[in-house]
């Protein structure tokens, strides 16, 4: 998962991009990058680490211009992170293009071969995002007339990208001397939203992974980018859009609502916060229906994303809601930390229980999901050490039994605690006295209640149905092999890149 931003403003854009990345930091903590444009030149700075670590005052001063894109990254394709894979990516032929991508291409190996054999382009990294920027550059070259671009030419190129590329992708790109381009895969798996701001000098536009970046930066939400749609804002601020996919349907990743997105965001018209409240309501209904003998004294959330669900669950059961864990804000999210050992160690540093809320009580802990089970087991043990008589565990999501190949860090079944275990076995594995999972249909209903226009979702990590139709057993096996190889090598780089990319027109 990643966070992406693109802005066409009427004043210097570097601070807006930096602030926007801070608002999207939860989507990726491995690397960050900003590219701005002034005239025919790009100015880039990117590096490994969180946004506040990558950018200093001197870096911000070297990013002039009123147009730019930004990216924060967490790797999901199974390769060890290298600074060369920090985004945005850049190509200079035939147009200067920089691109940031959220998602994962499922046919990147095929595309790499096509790039080398047919398109005569060389891919330098293992990143599918570098593949994507080269595919886009090639299609822009084919569609252009005498190497000049119009909005319609750009949309033709995006249509050809859709025909070649498979998987999940939300994209922001900048074309030197032309403007900012954004587009979304024909299934609408990864989110992308448009915002605008009226100024005395004219309208400014922003595209972002989540609406929180738009709201907090003083812009207003216009709408979501539709599945298969492309949006182009030229350097003068003129807004163009067109549906570029032959067939499209909206199937947002349901895990965005469960965990990935901030609660103050709207994803495809559905409030993430409202959806999480509804998840708690659905859990309460299930407990009242199937777990009537469960004697719960108190409901305690695992901060932060499970709080709305836990609050509504407690209300539905008629039992007290309490904050039982204090969270250290300076520890990263364990779900997106590479390596089980690092995750296990970080849980105790991240959460500290307050004994008065646990001692002598039957405690129902509520989390957004159980993925690998490492965090869940540590937290159950912490609750027992704090004096809990019994520890029950509720998950706002169903059991994750299948790899996710569309941009979330759940690539192999071997790492998923529920992949080959029953609910009772998972409960024993994490040390809980009882375990309650959300039902998949109930989860869909919870999100749909927040926006009844949502009829279909991408839910492969729960049901094994891969909506793009091209995910095979061999593909999943290849991902697993890469994951194991990356874990064994584990080489990481801490460098940063600061470049002035001049592009001739």
Indicate the topology.
Blueprint: E1 2-8, H1 14-23, E2 31-38, E3 41-48, H2 51-54, H3 57-61, E4 67-73, E5 89-91, E6 97-105, H4 108-117, H5 128-143, H6 151-164, E7 167-175, E8 179-184, E9 193-199, E10 202-208, H7 211-216, E11 220-224, E12 229-234, E13 239-243, H8 255-260, E14 266-267, E15 270-271, H9 272-290, E16 298-301, H10 307-317, E17 325-327, H11 340-350, E18 351-353, E19 362-367, H12 374-385, E20 390-395, H13 423-430, E21 434-437, H14 440-450, H15 460-463, H16 473-489, E22 496-502
Parallel strand pairs: 16-19, 19-20, 20-21
Antiparallel strand pairs: 1-4, 1-10, 2-3, 2-4, 3-22, 5-6, 6-7, 7-8, 8-12, 9-10, 9-11, 12-13, 14-15, 17-18
Helix pairs in contact: 4-5, 5-6, 9-10, 9-14, 11-12
Descriptive overview:
With 505 residues, this protein is α+β, with helices and mostly antiparallel strands. Helices cover 32% and strands 25% of the residues. It contains 16 helices and 22 strands. It has an 8-stranded antiparallel beta sheet with strand order 11-9-10-1-4-2-3-22. A 6-stranded antiparallel beta sheet has the order 5-6-7-8-12-13. Strand 9 and strand 10 form a beta hairpin. Helix 5 crosses helix 6.
